[in-house]
Amino acid sequence: MQKIVVVTGVSRGLGLELCRQYLAQGAKVFGCCRSPEQSQKLLELKRSAGYQFELVPLDITQPGMIHNLQYVIEEPIDILINNAGIYGPFGLSYDEVTVDPWMEVLRVNSVAPMMVTQALVEKVAQSHEKKIIMMSSKMGSMGDNQKGGSYIYRSAKAALNAVAKSLAIDLAGKGISVGVLHPGWVQTDMGGVNAPIDTETSIRGVRKVIDQLSLKNSGQFINYDGSVIPW
Q1: What span, in angstroms and rounded, lies between the C-alpha atoms of 182 and 230?
Q2: Between the CA of residue 3 and those of 8, 56, 79, what are the distances in Å?
Q3: Is 176 helix (H, G, I), strand (E, B) or coil?
Q4: Which of 3, 10, 72, 216 has most Cβ atoms within 10 angstroms of its Cβ?
Q5: Is residue 136 within 8 Å of residue 181, measured between CB atoms?
Q6: How far apart are CA 10 and CA 13, in angstroms?
């Protein structure tokens, strides 16, 4: 039985690599992002993968587009990966934080993954693997916060972690397991050139964690190397 994988935020970086590796594994992948036609690397992957790779225009801040996902994607979804996210303003001190940018990052990083999950949860419940992944960050960990700052991004990822933990409890009855993953500090547009690992290494680890996800470890906050991260 062919695995069906849905990934948001696929135009570059981790999302693009998730698509590439799952396609190489033989899965059918639905890649969702705002403007698929504007990503040359995404279009190249589509040309090589053919019908195994479906590109889905999706702005996760638009409720109508999220609602329509359940009609665009007809197959049961083995793995739903909520990967899309933004960092927001960088380097703000506590007295420089303002409301509007904060609300935008919360909407994209915390609220939108929940809305996407709502739209597709029944498709996941119909599948064989029944897995939902929230791509989080160590920046959302209270226990790991030793440097302060990054108020907007940290709080948005902490909120996402809380959402994922509750989903793990509430969806267990449907047989759905929920993973909360930290991909590592990765060499992407967000992570920067000084990051210690590349996207291939990160996603190879992420896929292994997803493979090992079950109802027994559902709701845990897990690093790409398989270690558990404190909340």
Answers
A1: 11
A2: 17, 18, 8
A3: coil
A4: 10
A5: yes
A6: 7
Residue 93: how many other CB atoms lie within 10 Å: 9
pLDDT at position 185, please?
84
Structure tokens of 179? 């993973």
Residue 23 pLDDT: 98
Burial of 64 (0-12, 13-18, 19+ CB in 10 A): exposed
Report the pLDDT averaged over residues 35-62: 96
Closest to 10 measured CA to CA, from 82, 112, 91, 109: 82
d(C-alpha 135, C-alpha 191), whole Å = 14
The amino acid at 90: F
Q: Do 137 and 131 touch, CB atoms closer than 8 A?
A: no
Picking from 101, 104, 103, 84, the residue whose alpha carbon sits closest to that of residue 92 is: 101
Q: What is the reported pLDDT for 192? A: 62
Q: How far is the C-alpha of 134 from the C-alpha of 157, rounded, in Å?
A: 10
3-state secondary structure of 59: coil
CA 105 to each of CA 1, 30, 113, 159, 163: distance values in angstroms, whole numbers, following the listed order? 38, 24, 12, 11, 15
pLDDT tens column, 145-178: 999 999 999 999 999 999 999 999 999 999 999 9
pLDDT in tens, 126-138: 999 999 999 999 9
Please tell me the predicted confidence (pLDDT) of residue 120: 98
The pLDDT, as a whole number, for residue 195 is: 67
pTM above 0.90, yes or no: yes
Report the greatest alpha carbon distance in the chain: 54
